[in-house]
């Protein structure tokens, strides 16, 4: 599929969708309150998810987002001390609540303060203003957003739990907490109550949905899979320029990334391409030290983050994109945004073979999924670097895959239908005093 064909097909689909909406006429209005720890202008992966979904829901869905003052990436935002402020991001109404905002590298205590203070104030907000809304959406991670979600259940609101990151399970795997700790047990209990009592669970990928079905007592018809979309105005395949002999990684330099086997694999590949890294995170010094030990300083450039609008051009003009994920942890569900954005601009990838990436690779043939072994990475890089025709074909298949499955307008329509269904079900169930006490007991886990 050419870039122009992909863009024109998207335009036709949007026009057809708008025409269908006009033909259907008026629909019942629903209102939703979204509680999210991250929201633009923050730039981490989950921050833009509900901004994009709400912008693409039908007009019959009235929405508001409650989030803290921005703080990620740390150091990019000034501290704010107002109890609350209002804003509009991309046309979405936003209420920002006070929380502690780290301004330097976050310590564990600062991260906890940031999450907990917002969670408490968001819970108060739900208790005071929640009656205005048909349902409340809480986005996890972190799991502290479940507290306002339980408040929504207790006060008779519909509850939708959107999981884009298995934050608690990963925290154990990465050694940040222990399953025997009181905090873990409390968060695990809140997860159990919220997931088994919510009206809908939104899972990021089919792999994640299957994990939750196996772990919790939740009917299949209450689980909806809604992946991340791709901003096709920003990540447009038509922006592709002449390819440069460059391999690229963009994103967080965090604990979930398998950088060492990929850096060692790049060194062993002995290809003419340079490796360029753009990102932020606690592991930058570690990567620079590893690059130095491998005598790759002249071939590997590790840079800080760049403005998001520059990323599409950098990725589109690169020969290969890297998506390194640790496979020994609970990341099998992951379909990272950088992975989708790479395909959206037609750049083939070499990625870690976690279950979800293997599934996408098998379906799309848009790149290579390899074990986190330096020799396997080196072989994949050599194969793609030596075959520009193969890279071009993979890139075209990646564009087509994203166009089929990851358009925000289609995902927004699906979420709009889900929210409307929850609102209708809650209306039928009623919100009288007996129903409210019943939901309070259910939210606390005292009855099923």
UniProtKB/TrEMBL annotation:
Residues covered by region (Disordered): 1-30
Alphabetized InterPro entries for the sequence: Glyco_trans_4-like_N, Glycosyltransferase_grp1
Residue ranges of coiled coil: none
Entry-linked SUPFAM superfamilies: UDP-Glycosyltransferase/glycogen phosphorylase
Location of the Glycosyltransferase subfamily 4-like N-terminal domain: 55-229
Compositional bias (Acidic residues): 18-29
Biased composition (Low complexity): 1-10
Protein name: Glycosyltransferase family 4 protein
Gene source species: Natrinema zhouii
The organism's taxonomic lineage, starting at the top: Archaea, Methanobacteriati, Methanobacteriota, Stenosarchaea group, Halobacteria
